[in-house]
């Protein structure tokens, strides 16, 4: 979920991608911010980028995506 936040996905997009409700996304994001001790999604994105700086963060898309054990991959529709 943090990867999706770092990609700039909105709660509705995350919910659709992960097949969960927007409320669940909102709650998970709140929990992530608390655990990372950061005040905002932007700060969580910076944390993610610092932790995974050797990996490029793909932009969030509205294309079909596939959930894999290591994140999301575009199906390239």
3D structure, described in words:
The chain is mostly helical and 77 residues long. It has one domain: Winged helix-like DNA-binding domain superfamily/Winged helix DNA-binding domain (Arc Repressor Mutant, subunit A, Orthogonal Bundle), CATH 1.10.10.10. 51% of the residues lie in helices and 10% in strands. It has four helices and two strands. It has helices at residues 2-6, 11-18, 22-36, 41-51; strands spanning 65-68, 71-74. Strands 1-2 form a two-stranded antiparallel sheet. A hairpin with a 2-residue loop joins β1 and β2. α2 crosses α3 (22-36). The protein is globular and about 30 Å long.
Question: Would you kindly provide a brief summary of this structure?
Answer:
With 77 residues, this protein is mainly alpha-helical.
Top keywords for this entry?
10% strand; Arc Repressor Mutant, subunit A; two-stranded antiparallel ribbon; mainly alpha
CATH superfamily annotation: Winged helix-like DNA-binding domain superfamily/Winged helix DNA-binding domain
- The overall average pLDDT, rounded, is 83
How far is the first residue's CA from the last residue's CA?
22 Å
Query: If strands are numbered along the chain, what order do they take across the biggest sheet?
Result: 1-2
Helix content: 40-55%
The name of the CATH topology is: Arc Repressor Mutant, subunit A
Count of helical stretches: 4
Gyration radius, rounded: 12 Å
**Which architecture per CATH?**
Orthogonal Bundle
Estimate nothing, just give the exact number of structural domains. Answer: 1
Overall body shape: globular
Secondary-structure element string: HHHHEE
Uncertain regions: pLDDT < 50 for 5+ in a row? none
**Which range does the strand content fall in?**
5-15%
**CATH class designation:** Mainly Alpha
Helix/strand structural class: mainly alpha
